[in-house]
């Protein structure tokens, strides 16, 4: 083991020890950004960048399981990404399917977060088959956000809520009176789950891009310069340490 590797291991153990006295996030969101820029810097293809990013997701989830974080939402494909060239999208879909298969194969519970109807029928069928055959033996639930947009999620939630209220025979004024923050929350893609405590974004971009737009009102954010495929366990530990040091005010 070289000196750099030894120092890294010592630093990692020190960070892990620091976290023992704190409560870690119960819901961690991650915007996996920078696959294409990582590939360009490495002299690799875009597809290779996406594949390296997918492999990092599986590794990242193993770290979360070790740390006993029960819920992780990973943004793999936004609604904006659906406008990318067909060749790139085709490769992305294949990688997403393989990644979901690996996540399910690790025993994690997979929950889709997004508008599945925006995906090709063969992609929907493949994912449905993986989830149906999965054997869950892990305490970790993974929300895989594909075909996801924060504004679209809110619109979908309100539409579904209005349809439900209309089916009850309510009139326009009664429907309007029944719409509330709680009733909208009950129709989000993440219904029944706690809001994210911490959201991580890689690649140096310091914006949410609509990720969990409704749910993140009281979330803490942590941004890092590292492209997603280069994200390390020590980076996660640093993010968690920063989260634990903050005083959360929840809008107060």
UniProtKB/TrEMBL annotation:
PANTHER family: DEHYDRODOLICHYL DIPHOSPHATE SYNTHASE COMPLEX SUBUNIT DHDDS, DEHYDRODOLICHYL DIPHOSPHATE SYNTHASE FAMILY MEMBER. Pfam families: Prenyltransf. Its cofactor is Mg(2+). Substrate binds at residues 34-38, 50, 78-80, 84, 201, 207-209. The active site is at residues 33, 81. InterPro entries: UPP_synth-like, UPP_synth-like_CS, UPP_synth-like_sf. Keywords: Magnesium, Metal-binding, Transferase. Belongs to the UPP synthase family. Z-FPP synthase subfamily. Binds 2 magnesium ions per subunit. HAMAP family: ISPT. Homodimer. It comes from Brachybacterium rhamnosum. Catalyzes the condensation of isopentenyl diphosphate (IPP) with allylic pyrophosphates generating different type of terpenoids. SUPFAM superfamilies: Undecaprenyl diphosphate synthase (SSF64005). It is an enzyme of class 2 (transferase). This is Isoprenyl transferase. Coiled coil: none annotated. One of its GO terms (molecular function) is transferase activity. Mg(2+) binds at residues 33, 220. Its EC number is 2.5.1.-.
């Amino acid at each position: 083991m070289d000196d750099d590797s030894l120092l890294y291991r010592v630093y990692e153990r020190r960070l892990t020890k620091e976290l023992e006295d704190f409560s870690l996030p119960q819901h961690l969101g991650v915007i996996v950004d920078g696959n294409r820029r990582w590939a360009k810097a490495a002299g690799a293809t875009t597809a290779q960048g996406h594949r390296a990013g997918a492999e990092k997701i599986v590794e990242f989830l193993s770290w979360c399981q070790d740390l006993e974080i029960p819920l992780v939402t990973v943004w793999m494909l936004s609604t904006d990404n659906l406008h990318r060239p067909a060749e790139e999208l085709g490769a992305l879909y294949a990688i997403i399917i393989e990644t979901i298969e690996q996540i399910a194969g690790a025993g994690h519970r997979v929950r889709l977060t997004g508008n599945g109807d925006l995906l090709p029928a063969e992609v929907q069928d493949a994912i449905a088959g993986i989830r149906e055959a999965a054997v869950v033996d892990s305490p970790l639930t993974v929300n895989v956000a594909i075909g996801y947009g924060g504004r679209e999620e809110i619109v979908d939630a309100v539409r579904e809520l209005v349809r439900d209220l209309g089916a009850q025979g309510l009139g326009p004024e009664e429907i309007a009176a029944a719409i509330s923050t709680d009733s909208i929350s009950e129709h989000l893609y993440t219904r029944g789950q706690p809001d994210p405590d911490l959201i991580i974004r890689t690649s140096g971009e310091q914006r949410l891009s609509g990720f969990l737009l409704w749910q993140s009102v009281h979330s803490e954010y942590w941004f890092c310069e590292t492209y997603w495929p280069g994200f390390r366990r020590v980076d996660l530990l640093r993010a968690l340490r920063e989260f634990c040091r903050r005083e959360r005010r929840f809008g107060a």
